Amino acid sequence: MTHRLHPDALRDAAIRAEICALCSHFYKLGWASGTGGGISIRSGETIWMAPSGVEKEKLAPADLFTVDRDGQVLTHPASDLSLTACAPLFLAAYRHRDAGAVLHSHSLEVILAAALVPPGESLDFTRLEMVKGLEGGAYFGTSTLPVIDNTALEHQLEERLEQAILDHAQASAVVVRNHGIYVWGRDVTQAKTQAECIDWLCSAKVRMHAAGIDHLRHDRSIP
Ligand code: ZN
């Protein structure tokens, strides 16, 4: 008789493997070096998250926690690890946006682009092709990402990140000045691709600013 794994066990194994593969990928992009950054995935009422303070490129499937939407730990790794400090921030996006996945990156491109934004203003993108990769994004529209100030400790960001999510109903990410970004999506693919588009847009903004280029100047495309 062939032993078959229960569908829940297969789902659990697949999500754990995907988080480890993506964390390794993000490490190579410079999004998750020095134990920072990472990704969390939700399936139904279960949310998978990494532990705190681990090298993301070395993350193993057995290292992950599962929590419910309230952040109550359902399963924890056998090793002596604590839940990621990003947990309350990931949970805010699950709570208010019904996200299927939430990604946190320490992307330098995002930090540089945010440094161009005066206090109290948002990071805006228009007439750049990758805007179309953002939820609701259109070439002739403007996609707006709120920028919040950083805090001494990651979990202390919760209140201002939550407020930014509530204040910017169209945004699929919140930028944290001098720190990085939280990006969510309906599923892991959308969270990842939106983070990639935002990175491209931030890189374009920073490089054009450095070169003194106004990308709208010669754009003759008509809405
Ligand atoms: Zn961080």
Q: Taking strands numbered 1, 2, ... along the chain, how are they ordered across the largest sheet?
A: 4-3-2-1-5-10-9-8
Largest β sheet strand count, sense and barrel closure: 8 strands, mixed
Total of domains: 1
- The CATH architecture term is 3-Layer(aba) Sandwich
The fraction of residues assigned to DSSP E strands is 15-25%
The rough form would be described as: globular
Strand segment tally: 10
- Could you give me the name of the CATH homologous superfamily? Class II aldolase/adducin N-terminal domain
Fraction of helical residues: 25-40%
CATH topology: L-fuculose-1-phosphate Aldolase
The average pLDDT is 95
Order of helices and strands: HEEEEHEHEEEHEEH
Structural class: alpha+beta
CATH hierarchy class name: Alpha Beta
Low-confidence blocks of residues: none
- Could you tell me the radius of gyration in angstroms? 18 Å
Query: Count of DSSP helices?
Result: 5
Bound molecules: zinc ion
Oligomer: single chain
Head-to-tail CA distance between termini: 63 Å
Describe the 3D structure:
With 223 residues, this protein is of the alpha+beta class. It has one domain (7-210): L-fuculose-1-phosphate Aldolase, CATH 3.40.225.10. 34% of the residues lie in helices and 18% in strands. Strands 4-3-2-1-5-10-9-8 form an eight-stranded mixed β-sheet, sandwiched between helices. A two-stranded antiparallel sheet has the order 6-7. Strand 1 and strand 2 form a beta hairpin. Zinc ion (ZN) binds at residues 36, 104, 106, 154, 179-180. Zinc ion (ZN) binds next to loops.
